[in-house]
Design goal:
single chain; 72% helix; two-stranded antiparallel ribbon; mainly alpha; MetI-like fold
């Protein structure tokens, strides 16, 4: 019996370890190995090239272009995905009539396939689409949403924002339910208004959840692919080409597996850095004594 109790926790962890091993660690080490080979001469007999793929990507202007696009995409989408769902969750957490219907309507975009959503928005952004029709009613010149380099990246980011609002709202809502009501009652007794009450009670209490949402949304924004693939193919003039789409392009269109693997390794490092920054910024109080 004691023998079973000793190893029972490891038995419960075993399925998760197997999944991580098969779908993360093994593919990662294979990708890391591929990044040291050159597939230009023969796809089936690659030549070992050491760090040449990493030197090559650092010398190519397109690499810096896609990194800037990825960073801009992150700056557009993440702040909105961190703040607006929190605002909606606070409103939904109030005692209002028809609350279940509001939750369903706000969560509905999460259920919709990202490909379907991208196609629908592509029609909305069309030259004769609904958005330009509304602008014409307001006597505003039509906008080339997906053709103009000034608007294309922002237009694609709107799809990511629309798709993620309901998902992050539910995460916040689950966290808000754990906030003790006595704290809100104390604020009411002190005469705190709606904003002050949530700034002094809600935000500090759910800060770990804010860190989680910030980290997840950052990773999702850096890994965006489907929206760009369906809507712009990285255009116009590479203005919407992010690093994941660039990896796909080099690996499956140019069959440059070594270079694409090097890009994937660089992306993993960047994602890990951003994740650590988010964790330490939002939960730094936990690490003061470490």
């Amino acid at each position: 019996m004691n023998y079973y109790k000793k190893f029972a926790p490891y038995l419960f962890l075993l399925p998760a370890v197997v999944v991580l091993l098969v779908f993360f660690f093994i593919p990662f080490f294979q990708t890391f190995e591929l990044s040291f080979f050159n597939y230009d001469s023969n796809l089936y007999s690659p030549v070992f090239c050491g760090m040449d793929n990493y030197y090559k990507l650092l010398k190519e202007p397109i690499f810096y272009k896609v990194m800037i696009n990825t960073l801009l995409y992150l700056l557009i989408a993440v702040p909105f995905l961190v703040t607006f769902p929190l605002f909606l969750a606070i409103l939904i957490n109030q005692k209002i009539r028809g609350i279940t219907l509001y939750k369903i309507l706000l969560y509905l975009p999460v259920i919709v396939s990202i490909v379907v959503a991208a196609i629908a928005f592509k029609w909305l952004y069309a030259g004769q689409g609904i958005l330009n029709y509304i602008l014409s009613l307001l006597h505003i010149s039509p906008i080339n949403w997906l053709v103009d380099t000034k608007w294309a990246l922002f237009s694609v980011a709107i799809v990511t924002i629309w798709k993620g609002i309901g998902y992050y709202m539910m995460i916040y809502l689950a966290s808000l339910m754990s906030v003790p009501q006595e704290l809100y009652e104390a604020c009411d007794i002190d005469g705190a208004n709606f904003i002050t009450k949530h700034m002094t009670v809600t935000i500090p209490h759910i800060m770990p959840t804010i860190a989680l949402v910030s980290t997840i949304s950052t990773i999702s924004a850096m890994k965006v692919f489907a929206e760009i693939y369906v809507m712009t193919k990285g255009g116009p003039l590479n203005s919407t080409k992010t690093i994941v789409y660039y990896i796909y392009e080099r690996a499956f269109e140019n069959l440059d597996l070594g270079y694409a693997s090097a890009l994937a390794v660089v992306l993993l490092i960047i994602v890990m850095v951003f994740s650590m920054i988010n964790i330490f910024c939002f939960e730094r109080n936990k690490y003061k004594d470490i």
